[in-house]
Write a structure and sequence with these properties.
The chain is of the alpha+beta class and 234 residues long. The chain is built from eight helices and four strands, in the order βαβαββαααααα. The protein folds into two domains: 77 residues, Glutaredoxin, CATH 3.40.30; 122 residues, Up-down Bundle (Glutathione S-transferase Yfyf (Class Pi), Chain A, domain 2), CATH 1.20.1050. It binds glutathione.
Length: 234
C-alpha cells in the first residue's frame, strides 16, 4: 500500500530511525504509545549489530552515532531520547509526560537525567565495555574495569530509585512521566544484560511490575528480550 501523502491526509508523517528492541528506542516508543502517535510514524531500522549507526550515512543524521533519531517531514533531525520526548509531548499542546508547570518540568528533567546518569547510561557502559557488547566489529575499544564500575554504579542507582519509590508511586510525585520512562529503559537494558536488580530493592521491583500494567510499557518489555523483568540477585 502506498504511504499516505502528508500534504493531503492530515498531520505530517515523521520517521524514526531506530532498532526495534533497543532499550533507548524503547523510551521513545513508550512515549509514542502514551501520546497515541504511532500512526504518524514510519520506522526505519538501523542495524546496531552490523554497526550501521556508525556508518557515514547515519552519522550525517546524528553526529553521536546513537539511536533513536526522529526525522521531521521538513528534514529536521532530532536525536537524544529526552529531546525527542519533549518534542512529541509538545505536539498536541497538552504535555502529559514532561510536565505542565515550571516546577513539574524542572523535577521531571532532573529525575530523568538522574535515571540516565545513574542507571540507564551506566548499564549501557557495562554492556559495551564489560560484555561482548555488539561484537568485535562494532566494539573497537573496550575497558572491562570501567564497565564493571558502571555496573556497580547502576546498582547504586537502583538503590537510590528504590528509596524514592518507597515514598511515592512514580519517579516524580503522583503521575507517570518521562522520568519513569527513562528508568524503565534502564531496567529493560538491565534485563537484557542480566544485570540484577538488588534483592532489597522491593519498591523498585513493585514499581516496575506496576509500570508493565501500562500497555505502552508491557509491549516494550516483552519485545526487548527474554527477561520479562530483571532477575533478582541470585
Ligand atoms: N544519549 C542517547 C543514547 C542513545 C543510545 O545509546 N542508544 C543505543 C541504542 S539502544 C545506541 O545507539 N547504542 C550504540 C552505541 O552506543 O554504539 C539518547 O538518549 O538517545
Amino acid at each position: 500500500m502506498a504511504s499516505p501523502d502528508p500534504k493531503t491526509s492530515g498531520p505530517a508523517l515523521m520517521t524514526i530511525h531506530d532498532w526495534p528492541t533497543g532499550p533507548y528506542p524503547a523510551r521513545v516508543r513508550i512515549a509514542l504509545a502514551e501520546k497515541n502517535l504511532q500512526s504518524r510514524i514510519r520506522f526505519v531500522s538501523v542495524d546496531l549489530w552490523k554497526g550501521e549507526h556508525k556508518w557515514p550515512e547515519f552519522l550525517a543524521k546524528n553526529y553521536s552515532g546513537t539511536l533513536p533519531v526522529l526525522e521531521l517531514a521538513d528534514g529536521t533531525f532530532i536525536a537524544e531520547c529526552t529531546a525527542i520526548t519533549v518534542y512529541l509531548d509538545a505536539l498536541d499542546g497538552a504535555p502529559t509526560l514532561t510536565g505542565r508547570t515550571p516546577c513539574e518540568q524542572g523535577l521531571i528533567q532532573m529525575m530523568s537525567k538522574r535515571a540516565e546518569l545513574e542507571v540507564l547510561d551506566a548499564v549501557s557502559v557495562y554492556f559495551h565495555h564489560a560484555t561482548p557488547g555488539l561484537g568485535p566489529d562494532v566494539e573497537l575499544y573496550q575497558n572491562a574495569e570501567w564497565g564493571l564500575r558502571q555496573r556497580d554504579k547502576a546498582q547504586r542507582g537502583m538503590r537510590y530509585f528504590d528509596g524514592i519509590l518507597r515514598t511515592q508511586p512514580f519517579v516524580v510525585g503522583d503521575a507517570f512521566s518521562m522520568a519513569d520512562i527513562t528508568l524503565i529503559g534502564g531496567l529493560i537494558f538491565a534485563g537484557l544484560v542480566d544485570l540484577a536488580v538488588p534483592a532489597e530493592c522491593t519498591a523498585l521491583q513493585a514499581w516496575y511490575a506496576r509500570m508493565q500494567e501500562r500497555p505502552s510499557v508491557r509491549n516494550r518489555v516483552t519485545m526487548s528480550g527474554p527477561a520479562v523483568a530483571p532477575p533478582r540477585d541470585r
